[in-house]
Description:
Layout: H1 10-20, E1 28-31, H2 41-57, E2 60-65, H3 75-88, E3 94-97, H4 102-114, E4 118-121, H5 125-130, H6 149-160, E5 170-173, E6 188-192, E7 206-208, H7 210-221, E8 225-229, H8 236-245, E9 253-257, H9 269-277, H10 292-298, H11 302-312, H12 323-334, E10 340-341, E11 343-344, E12 347-352, E13 360-366, E14 376-382, E15 384-388, E16 408-411, E17 416-424, E18 430-438, E19 455-456, E20 458-460, E21 465-472, E22 498-506, E23 519-521, E24 525-529, E25 538-545, H13 551-557
Amino acid sequence: xxxxxxxxxxxxxxxxxxxxxxxxxxxxxxxxxxxxxxxxxxxxxxxxxxxxxxxxxxxxxxxxxxxxxxxxxxxxxxxxxxxxxxxxxxxxxxxxxxxxxxxxxxxxxxxxxxxxxxxxxxxxxxxxxxxxxxxxxxxxxxxxxxxxxxxxxxxxxxxxxxxxxxxxxxxxxxxxxxxxxxxxxxxxxxxxxxxxxxxxxxxxxxxxxxxxxxxxxxxxxxxxxxxxxxxxxxxxxxxxxxxxxxxxxxxxxxxxxxxxxxxxxxxxxxxxxxxxxxxxxxxxxxxxxxxxxxxxxxxxxxxxxxxxxxxxxxxxxxxxxxxxxxxxxxxxxxxxxxxxxxxxxxxxxxxxxxxxxxxxxxxxxxxxxxxxxxxxxxxxxxxxxxxxxxxxxxxxxxxxxxxxxxxxxxxxxxxxxxxxxxxxxxxxxxxxxxxxxxxxxxxxxxxxxxxxxxxxxxxxxxxxxxxxxxxxxxxxxxxxxxxxxxxxxxxxxxxxxxxxxxxxxxxxxxxxxxxxxxxxxxxxxxxxxxxxxxxxxxxxxxxxxxxxxxxxxxxxxxx
Length: 559
Ligand code: ATP
Ligand code: MG
């Protein structure tokens, strides 16, 4: 991946030191998503980190599905995760599943039992939780803690053989109920779950806990640096304890970094699932969702997402990143490459009375003001055009330089027109503006030197193509939807996060628009065709407006 320059961060420094000290032959990382939902922009950070290290150090990175909880997981999610990683521009060295190692994990568990390092506890989950103690009080030993090795082995075998109901027994590590780190207070390693698994079917009715599967999976794969988010910091002692007490083939090192948090959205899969299930969005790939699929459908580019993560960087400091930064990254990516077009979203008809009815004119204009290599396009000018409703005012306020009674305005790439008369509907709303044009002002020039400040975009009425345009905005209207928790976070949903405009008029060339091209609709924003768009029913999504309109608002809404 050539998003130069190479990043510098504390994890890469550790790796550099390890290489210098000759500790590893090759650097091996992994990305371990649970297939229980779509990837979101937070996962992008972990992907960028793990796959970026693989690419820059010539190492390996496994995509390992953490499929230890069959209740919530599915192949549908796994396939989408693969697609999203590839779209971001990364490729895994190998694909694995925690479930590939279920036999080995079982052997490891038996090994612990045989070494009196694990036991079967027959208490309920509630009892086990009650005995766990707190941050200030030690835990209590389970009455089953001193079961003999043989009894433990046969109970564990019986658990595996399906002789018990869910919750009747669990396997726990035998570490220390007095440990100051709660994760070391005889953590549960295996639980009974009579539930078919998407890959192993009915073979298993006991499943390893994340903490038991994760580090051992790392060790089996020869992962050198197991990079995870800060909430696992307190689990590291258990991670190391298991690696130390099991006959694993390698010794991975866990290193934590801070999660990506973004304002004006939520990121946990649990909440995203809820937004989908309750119908607040149209699906996981709704363009308002912070999912990779949603951002892709909206029109974000892989480069912009990688640049975003690169500019956030990797640290151990928890923080919340401004949505404005993500939006800036896509603007910066698109500004130099998006072809410019004219599109009128809320059309108002303009009739140019002194332009002959039978005449049309082709105007060749560059598709990008600074990049001639992007090419040219042809606009058609004619007697009837559409302009934006907001580019006309009956009673223009001070500083308004667009069309108003008696006033002149420049039509972008065409002529200066003057407003002569306004045709109104029964409610007095303007429905048609009658103008004259000045034939001396082709290309918007005024040879007599007179000042015409305003420039507006337009499309020829009979040549325009129709489209639906969806104006997407932030999903939540407050910076921290989970904030004070005074209200349900759903109350903070932005009621204007989607506006569908059905009768938009686009310049002719967009009739054959390439569905992969992101356009700048001049003066309006950047747009991308929706996945549901068809040539005879065009649908464009707004990726982002041209300018940040939220900075000022957020000053009010965040406190
Ligand atoms: P969520 O809490 O959103 O459900 P998760 O951590 O349960 O996320 P996983 O599928 O288990 O989701 O995550 C796979 C990997 O992605 C993990 O290594 C995890 O640390 C990392 N990851 C998840 N969310 C973020 C985030 N916001 N920032 C950085 N890394 C993340
Ligand atoms: Mg998880």
